[in-house]
Each structure stands twice: as C-alpha cells, then as structure tokens.
Amino acid sequence: MLNNRSTRGALLCIFSACLWGFTGTVGQFLFQQMGISSKWLASNRMLAAGILLLIYIYWRRGKEIFDIWKNKKDAKDMLLFSLIGMLFMQYGYFLAIGHSNAATATVLQYLAPVMIVIYVSIRYHKMPSFLRV
EamA domain: which residues (predicted)? Predict the structure, then answer.
C-alpha cells in the first residue's frame, strides 16, 4: 500500500497536518501550564527542526547539503526566508497563542494573506486582478 507514491504522499500530508494542528495546542499548554515564553519556544522549535532536517538531509544526500553556500544569492535567499519568513511567522504564531489561544492564532495566521491584499489595495488605491490573487 505504501509503495504507491501518491498514497504515501497523501498519508504523509494528512499526518503532517495533524502534527501541525497539535502544535498550537501543545504551545498553548506550554505557555499556560509551564510558563514558557513564546520567544523561547519559537526559537528552540526552529533550531531543533533545523538540526533534525540537516541530519536527515545529510543522511539522504551527504555533502550536497552544503551546496546552498556555493551560490551567494541562494544562500542569502535561504537566510532571509529562514530569519524573516519562518522565524517571525513562528514567533508571531506562538505570541498570538500566548495572548489568546491556539484557535484564534490559527485563524489570524490564515487571514494574513487576506489582510496583506487589503492593505496593498488601500495603499495603492487599486484592487488586485483575479490572476494576481
């Protein structure tokens, strides 16, 4: 059954979604019951995930994991995405959980693209085209 790539991909996708949903609840528990800060949780979660991914990729591909550093533009893009994209998104998500709850933080996270479209529309006095959205 798991030999079929589509089936395996679908199962991994479902499993990942369940784990992602579990993350908010665990974060809320850690904030309320254990007194952990959102800054600590976001940074340590990203660090642990990065280390685990590097170990896995090294195991699968060997020294290819260092190829990203051969191209300065790729390295810069990866660092910007990691620090500005992922870290701030994770920190904001856990900060929202800390100030409200996991459900509210999830709704806010999924509303972010809509809020960006509204902001850009107001800022530039132009609605985006259907293809742009």
Answer: 8-131
DSSP-derived letter for residue 129 is P
Domain that holds residue 40: 5-124
Q: pTM for the complete prediction? A: 0.74
Query: Is the pLDDT reported for residue 1 higher than 60?
Result: no
Rounded Cα–Cα distance for residues 19 and 42 (Å) = 16
Structurally, the chain folds into a number of domains equal to 1
Query: What pLDDT, on the 0 to 100 scale, is given for residue 26?
Result: 93
Burial tier of 55 (Cβ tally within 10 Å: 0-12, 13-18, 19+): exposed
Kindly state the DSSP code that residue 128 receives in the 8-state scheme: P
51 near 95, Cβ under 8 Å? Answer: no
Question: Which two structure tokens, joined as six digits, stand for 44?
Answer: 């340590």
User: Coil, strand or helix: which one is 118?
Assistant: helix
Q: Flag whether 131 is in a domain.
A: no
Query: What does R_g of the chain's alpha carbons equal in angstroms?
Result: 19
Residue 46 belongs to some domain of the structure: yes
